[in-house]
Write a structure and sequence with these properties.
By secondary structure, this protein is of the alpha/beta class. The protein is built from 5 helices and 12 strands. Bound molecules: NADP nicotinamide-adenine-dinucleotide phosphate (NAP).
């Protein structure tokens, strides 16, 4: 497949790009400025573009089968996630790409019917602004009927590690193992993310992945 990926330079985005290349896909990497390709990403077709410029963004991704995103805000502009979601929707429409898969936040997953994780009283304060920003982005996608989007939230904890497998992918609900740990490594998240790109099992839904 030809996969256009926003943020192929991020901690998670670079793992997704590597996994996609490993699976034999072509990757168009949407970056905000020209720079040398990071190690392992030499065969990504990097295109520097301002994602707020819909015409330029659409032009850069034209011909891709899927528009994916691992966009991550910085600590001083956390609230840009929803704007990035709007930009992704606009560019997908303008480029005629129906399939969109984006990273979300675990805070938007339900811990009980109608209750999202970010709304539980002991949700960690340090992550709250990020979780609320991702919920705004999720709310953007929930209004989109004409694209086959998937909002792919990581487990609560995601970080460096090996491919372990032994994970489950589910829709809507927060997922943990029998001990209550909600965890996934970057490479396993990337594997599940690329599998969803390939298989399109969860259209117009929020999903997550965690070790069991
Ligand atoms: N449990 C959870 O719910 C959880 C846990 C961790 C992360 N996340 C989410 O996962 C996402 C990725 O996290 P990460 O750790 O991989 O983040 P990261 O390492 O900080 O990477 C952020 C990426 O976004 C890109 N970016 C930022 N602003 C951009 C812009 N205006 N235009 C184009 N690209 C832009 C960065 O590009 P540059 O290289 O140019 O800076 C970088 O590639 C984030 O949204 C984060 O909130 C969720």
């Amino acid at each position: 497949m030809k996969i256009a990926l926003v943020a192929p330079t991020g901690k998670i985005g670079s793992e997704i790009a590597k996994e996609a290349l490993r699976q034999g896909h072509e990757v168009i990497g949407i970056v905000r400025s020209d720079r040398a390709a990071p190690e392992g990403l030499e065969s990504v077709n990097f295109k520097a573009v301002d994602i707020a410029d819909t015409a330029a963004f659409a032009d850069a991704i034209k011909g891709a089968d899927v528009l994916a995103s691992a966009y991550g805000p910085q600590h001083d502009n956390i609230d840009t996630v929803a704007a990035a979601a709007e930009a992704i929707v606009a560019a997908a429409r303008a480029a005629g790409i129906k399939r969109v898969v984006v990273i979300g936040g675990a805070g938007s997953l339900e811990v009980a019917p109608g209750l999202q994780l970010v709304d539980v009283p002991d949700f960690p304060e340090a992550y709250k602004a990020y979780a609320l920003a991702h919920r705004k982005a999720f709310n953007v996608f929930k209004t989109v009927d004409d694209l086959d989007w998937t909002f792919f939230s990581p487990a609560a904890e995601i970080g460096p590690g090996d491919k372990v497998g032994n994970y489950k992918v589910v829709a809507k609900t927060f997922l943990a193992n029998a001990d209550g740990h909600s965890k996934i490594s970057y490479p396993d998240y990337a594997e599940a993310f690329v599998a969803e790109i390939e298989q399109g099992k969860f259209l117009k839904d929020i999903i997550t992945v965690a070790y069991q």
